[in-house]
Amino acid sequence: MSRRAVTAAGLAAAGGVGYYLYKAGGDPKVAEKKFEADSAKVDEVRGKLTEAQQKAQEYKDRTGQEMKQAVNKFDTTIEQKARAAEEYKERAEREMNKAVDNFDKTVERKAVEAKNGISSWFGFGGK
User: Fold this and answer.
1) Cβ distance 126 to 119 under 8 Å?
2) Per UniProt, which keywords does this protein have (predicted)?
3) Alpha-carbon span 58 to 80, nearest angstrom
4) What are the helix (H) ranges across the chain?
5) What are 41-74's pLDDT values in tens digits?
6) What are the CA-CA distances from residue 7 to residues 10, 21, 22, 58, 83 (Å)?
7) I want to staple 20 with a disulfide (CB 3.0 to 4.6 A). Which of 31, 36, 93, 103 is the partner?
8) Which residues of the chain have a pLDDT value below 50?
9) What are the structural domain ranges in the chain?
10) Angle separating helix axes 28-121 and 3-23, nearest 10 degrees
11) What number of other Cβ atoms are within 10 A of residue 31's Cβ?
12) Cα-Cα-Cα-Cα dihedral of 36, 42, 48, 49, to 10°?
């Protein structure tokens, strides 16, 4: 320990002793009782602070768990909605392909009918 630190600690201790002696009117026994009372208050405050820190940690832990649950629920919902959207897209593509196929068949059938109709009209055969 450096000399300055020792000197500072000694001055602080002497100042504390002087404060308690002054407050006690110079009576060392009364000063000692006041010091003990103040020490008990410090211990009480320290205990309350420790208790408050523990409660804060418990609250933090509980809140963290609730946040994780909320995020997991949100993620699950998003996944479900994404799957539903993908299924809807696939179903719409199948329906569109069916409609296009039906349209193509109809056009081909009408083209054949038109060809047959024109051929028979000009006497090239037909029905």
Assistant:
1) yes
2) Coiled coil
3) 33
4) 3-23, 28-121
5) 999 999 999 999 999 999 999 999 999 999 999 9
6) 5, 21, 22, 43, 74
7) 31
8) 126-127
9) 3-121
10) 110
11) 19
12) -160
